[in-house]
Every structure is written in C-alpha cells, then in structure tokens.
C-alpha cells in the first residue's frame, strides 16, 4: 500500500468523524414548555463541544498529514498503528456527545468531562506512539533520514502537547467547566500562527494531540 | 500540505454534510391517526429545506473549489480558515432540521428560520473572510498574481451575495415563509447560467455564499 | 473544475448514501414480547430493501462514472445537473426506510412503495436528463465526438431502463410486493453480464437508472 | 472504470462504515437511577464490539487493497463482486449494534452473537468469492500473471481464515462470550506482524476475512 492510499482512507475517516459531530446537536422538541430561544441557549454546552471537537479533530488531521507525509512507504505495522489512531478519532463524536449532555447535570458531569478530555489524551497518546514507531522503529521507511536529535525533539514536542489534556482530565472532577476551558484553549492555541511557528522549531508535524 | 489534499479533505466534509441532510427526513410513525399521504404532505417543509440546503451546499462547494484552486500552496493560517469554513458547513444539517421542524409551529418558528438563514450567512461570512485572507494576506501563495482591483471585485461580489441571507435572517421574525422563499431564490439563482456568467464578470469563484 | 474533481465529490456522495442505508436496519428492542429470532425475521422487508437499494445505487454509480468519464471538461450547467442527480441519490435512504417500514402495514403500504419506486424513477429521469444535456447541449465538452445516432441510442437505452420503475410505481397501489419484486428484478438484471453486453451494444454507460 | 476509481469508491464505503460504528455507542440517559460510571461500565459490550469491528473492518480494508491492487483493469463482473463485498461491509454497524445490545440479555443473546460472527463470515465468504473470481475467471485482468499454484495458495489462505468465524458462529449458541473472544482473537492475530509474514508466505493480500 502506498502512503497516498493510507492518507486518502484516513482523510475519509477524519472527514466523517468531524462531520458526524453535528448529530450531537439535537433539535429541541416542539412540545417543550420553554421557548425555543430558551431551549437553544440551554444547549450551549453542545455548541461549545461541537466547536472544540471540530477544531481539535481538524488540527490532529493536519498533524496526521505532516507525520505520514514523511513516509515513502508503509508496512503492516504502520497500517495497524494508523488504524488504532483512527479508532481513537472515531469515538470522539461519542465522547463529545457525552460531555455536552452531562455538563450541566448535578451527577456524572465530572466523569463525563474526564472521559471527554481523556479521549483527546488517548488520541494524543496513540499519535505519539505512532510517531515513535515510525521515527525509531521504521526509519528506513522515511523519505529523508532524520537525525536522532531531531526525531527526539519531534516526539518530545508531541508528548508535551498531551500535558494540558492530562491536566484537563484530572481537573474534570473538580469542575467540568475547567476541562472544557482547557480543551478550548488548546484548540485556540493550535489554531494560532504561533503554534505553527513553534511546531516548525520542533517539527511542524508535532503541533498537537 | 498540498492544496490538493486540502481540497480532497474538504470535498469529503462537503459530501458528508450534504448527504447527512437526508437524516432530517423522518419516516412517519405507523401508528398515526392520519393517512400516510397526509403525513407525508404535512412534512413538506422538510422536503423544501432538504432541496434548498442541498443546492446551497452544492453551490458553496463549487465556489470553494474555485477559491482554493487558485492556490499553489497552503500554510497553517489557510488550513485554519478552511477548517472554520467547514465547521459552518457541518452545522447545516442541524439548522436545516431545526427550520423544517419549527416552520409550521406557532411558537419558535421565527427564531428557527432566523437560525437557518443565519447559518447560511455565517457560512457566507466565513467564506468571504477566507477569501479576503487568501487574496490580501497570502497573495504570494496564489498560482497567478491577481491585481488589487480584481481581488477587490471578487470580494465585493462574494460579500454582495450575503445581502439576501442577511435580509432573510431579519425577515424571519415577520414570517418564516419569506425566509424560506429568499433562500430558495438564492439557490435557484446560483443554479442558473446567468449566475455563472455574472460570476465570470466578477470572479467565477465568488458566485455565492 | 476538472471532471476528476466532480467525480471524486460524486463518489463521496454515492459512497455515503449507500452506506447510510444501514441506518434503516433497526436493532429490535430488548423488551419485546417476541423472541429475537421472530423479530429479526419480521424485519425482512428492511433487509430486502437494503439489498435492492444498495445494488441499485451501486449500479447507478457505475453508470454515473461511464457518463461523466466521457467529458474532458465541465461547465456550470453540468455541475448543476450533477448536483440535481446527487440530490435524488441522497434521498434514497429515506425512501428505502419508508418502504421497509410500511410494507407490511395495512394502511399506507401502497403509497410507501410508490414513493420508493418513484424515487428510483426520479433518479433515473434526472440521469437521462443529465445525459441528454451532455450529449446534445454540451457536445463540445466530450472527449470524443459522438455521432447523433449513437447519442440517440444511448439516450433511448437509458430512457427504456426507466419503464420498469414506472410500472413498479403504478403497480404499487395494487400490491407493494410487486413493486419490490420489480425493483429487485432490475437490480439483478443490471448485475448480470448480459446487462453489460446489452449496454455495450447501446452505450455501456446507459445500463440503468 | 479504472481500478483506482473502484478503490477510491470502496475506500469511501470502508471509511464510512468504520466511522458509523460510533453511532452504536449510546450516551446513557441523564435520568437513570444508576450513576454514570455504573452505566458506562455496564455498556462494556458496546466498547468491545466497537474495537473488534473497527479493527476487523480495518484489516479487511487492507486485504481489499491487496487483492484489487493486483488488477490492471476491471470489468462489469468485478464491479458487481466488489459491490456485493461492500454490501456485506456496510451491514456491520448493524450487526455490531445487535451483538452489543443483546450480549448480556437472557434471551436472544446467542442468536445476536451468531448474527455478529455470521456477518464476518459472510463478508469473508464474499471476499473469498471475489478473489476466486479474479484469480480464476479474470486472470487476463491481472497486472502480473499468477501461477495456478500461487493462486490456489492465496485462495486457501483466505478460505482458512474463515474457519474461526465459522466456529464463532456455531458456538454463539453455547455462550456469546466465546464468540466475542474468538472475533477479538482474530482481530488481534491479524494486527500482529506474524499475520503479515504468514500472509506473505501465502499471498500478503489474503491475510483475513
């Protein structure tokens, strides 16, 4: 299999997962006792979660491309690592929905937020693992050899990016709002030009996740 | 990342969002007191909204291609602008469903229609913003340089196309039917050859939204 | 826009519509008074409709490719014709679900079956219209010129293919089972090698729908 | 149609089916009498089924590529075989959901598990059939001729891979957990490097399914 085909398939999964997020936005029932305006406003966690998850998946897609475009060929082990990564991307519509639905509940809201940030952490962890596998165990499949120092820098940068998600997961049990805020902050940071420049310093493909 | 890959990913999101619209068409329950014919006819707002949203997404897809095919390369900022645009496309199945479900209600119908037209306006606004960013802030990434006059004409044409959606949003509170009619009119106009010719006069990629 | 990009986008819509058909297969509730085996067997119209719709969409996809691969370029009018065709493909998960749910009801079953076959007829009609537009109004966009006789033969063959769907739509009010049988028969016929050969006699891209 | 286009369309269906699996993960209702943690843990069959089905579809996608990348051209019969294969892939979100929902029930759990493993068996059977058709009935369409011995080895290897699914289907009526375990074991086995090497011995494209 060529890297191009792997990328095209992965692009499909990213595009579908990102678009399925909309299914978490529910139309308020027409038989509610509240006005539609009230109902829509009360659904703000769903919109916040939609935007955060959309941008986060979008950014991991950018990084996925950067990481896999370095390859001139793929073997079975890389295909399986990629599948594992896509599997963690595929569950995000579920964890996003879970968070949105429980954010304002008085019970389960901490766990729901922990699962939400935890799913980003899982995705990031698998991304770091896939990168590590490519850079250190399959260097012969790279288009251009990378010095060990550069490879380490890339990995460190990617691993560092997981720390906010780890904190967001742990703090979920204090209040889910801080979790939401940290995840939003990460999405904003990686959308800014500064993240791109920082990434180029390390390795531009390690911007996130 | 090459413009081709950005386009392929974007095409995926457009194709999924446009096809997910069908999920807003609900099969009437078999336990209704009315005949199926009556139930299906009563659902006409869903069919109207499906057709209008389908054509509108299709036309923005055409314009997306025209705008991004001008690029010989993309940078981080363009990727993020594109993600923001796709995010506004991705919510259309939700706003379409909202409009269809509330159109004939006696409460909330104005707000639902305003959200519907407003989501087209948002998408159009981000499209204008992305175009502006490309033409004025990243001219060095264009395949062929565009004179400032031509760039301005392109932007003006795209921005003008938002006026009907702005009017449709505002008039939603008078009656949602006028909103539906204006959005339908826009979809029809941009489907006609005349829109294409007008676009070529300005810039063919600025046909809509 | 190149024909390739139009095809890639169209492929996406076909692939999504065909895969969304699975959402019509519902898992029986665990609180039913009947055994699961009984419930699954009682759902046979859903499985039949899934198979028929899947193969029919698959075959129209094959024909779509044949028709559009003749083009060396596309213009605005062809893009719009293509969008209209995709719109009729996009509603098939809905009409399939409608048919499956009403097939065994004692009320509405005829109308549901008529809508089902009618949606195939609509898709086929738009396909014939798109073909007609390409062959007779945009011959200058074809890769290779087609004699008027050959163009007529192609169109006739495609139009003839609609007759069974027209009959299936009309007979739906007699009994929906005959509608299902005719649609199944068409899917089987176009899957056989004989259909391919017949198509080559006329024009291989006019096999169906 | 070129093999590339067939692959791109098939990739789309694989990517959508694999991503739709997430729709089987349901957010627990906020009005449950149990804690969210309890509800999420009680849903473990859904997560297990998600992971197993995701990896199984991923692996059949790898094998699909290997099998179809041997072709230099496709004819009508290969397109129809491919559609039949995609149809069996497309139903997996349904059978996965069925298994997950019934696994812990006291009635129907055996049948649900049998349908689950049976759907893998069906997919595998159609894959073997498609391979057989290509290797023995359309050898003239292969890029490179394959000796009859090699073709037989490839088919045997693919057919052997169905035996665990056959056993899993039959044992479902003893206990559905053994079915789940066997399907999980297959997914793990084919993810390991050893499966890749074994496949290369036979034919690397016959690894599974």
End-to-end Cα distance of chain A, whole Å, is 26 Å
Structural class of chain A: mainly alpha
Largest interface: A-B, 35 and 32 residues
Number of strands of chain A: 0
Fraction of residues in β-strands of chain A: under 5%
Using only C-alpha atoms, the radius of gyration of chain A works out to 18 Å
Question: What's the pLDDT, averaged over the residues of chain A?
Answer: 91
List the uncertain runs of chain A. 200-209
Q: Could you state the order of secondary-structure elements of chain A as H and E?
A: HHHHHHHHHH
Counting copies of identical and different chains, the oligomeric state is homotetramer
The outline of chain A comes out as elongated
Give a short summary of the structure.
Chain A has 209 residues and is mostly helical. Chain A has helices at residues 3-20, 36-42, 44-68, 76-90, 92-102, 109-137, 148-160, 163-171, 176-191, 193-202. The longest helix of chain A is centred in the middle third of the chain and has 29 residues, at 109-137.
Map the helices and strands:
4 copies of one chain form a homotetramer.
Chain A (H helix, E strand, L loop, with lengths): L2 H18 L15 H7 L1 H25 L7 H15 L1 H11 L6 H29 L10 H13 L2 H9 L4 H16 L1 H10 L7
Describe what you observe in this structure.
The structure is a homotetramer of 209-residue chains. With 209 residues, chain A is mostly helical. Chain A is built from ten helices and no strands. Chain A has helices at 3-20, 36-42, 44-68, 76-90, 92-102, 109-137, 148-160, 163-171, 176-191, 193-202. The longest helix of chain A has 29 residues, at 109-137. The radius of gyration of chain A is 18 Å and the shape is elongated. Chains in contact: A-B, A-D, B-C, C-D. Chain A binds chain B through residues 7-8, 11-12, 14-16, 18-23, 25, 27, 30, 35-37, 40, 50-51, 54-55, 58-59, 61-62, 65-66, 69, 191, 193, 195-196, and chain B through 1, 5, 8-9, 12-13, 16-17, 20, 23, 75-77, 79-80, 83, 86-87, 90-91, 93-94, 97-98, 101-102, 105, 107-108, 111-112, 115.
